[in-house]
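Justification of computing resources. Each target in the renewal requires a structure prediction run like the one illustrated here; the chain below, 181 residues long, is used simply to show the kind of job we budget for.
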Amino acid sequence: MKLLLPIAAFALMGVACTGETAPATPAPAPVAEAPAAPAPVETKDIVDTAVGAGQFTTLVAAVQAAGLVETLKGPGPFTVFAPTDAAFAALPAGTVEDLLKPENKAKLTAILTYHVLPAEVMSSAIGATATDVATVEGKTVKVDGSTAGKVMVNDATVVTADVDASNGVIHVIDKVLLPPM
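Resulting C-alpha cells:
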C-alpha cells in the first residue's frame, strides 16, 4: 500500500507538469433498480373469459337468456364445453332464435347445463378410453380421448382445450351438444 501512494502521486505530477488535465473520475454507474415483480395475471371467470374471446356471442346470449350468468360467474369449479358461434350457426335454421324465446327458457337451460360439468377437468385428465361423465343438467356426456390427437365430447370435437378461467376451465367444441330425450 505504501508503494502505491508514491506511484499515484508521481503519475498525477506528471500529468500536471505536461499541462494536461487529469482525466475526470467516471461517475459511478447508476444503481439499477430491482425489476418490478410482474403484475399478477388477473384471470376472468368463465362468462367474462367467453365474452373476451369473441367467438362465443351466441353462447353468451343464450347464457343470459337462460339466467345462468350469475351461476357461471360463481365459485365453481366448472368445466364448460363451449360451442363456438359457428357451431350454433350449424344448427337447423331458426333453432337458436326459437331457443332464445322466453317460453323456451327451460329447454335452453337444459341444453346449456348439459355443456357443464360440476368440476374442473383439464384435458390432461381425459383418458384414452371413452368415459361417461355426469353434467350439471343430470345426464351424461361421453368424453373420449382415444382418437389420435383428438378429444371428443359425444360427437363434438374439442378444438381448443384448457382455456383457463378463475372458476374453472373452458374446452372449445365445434358442435352444440343436445341432451338425449
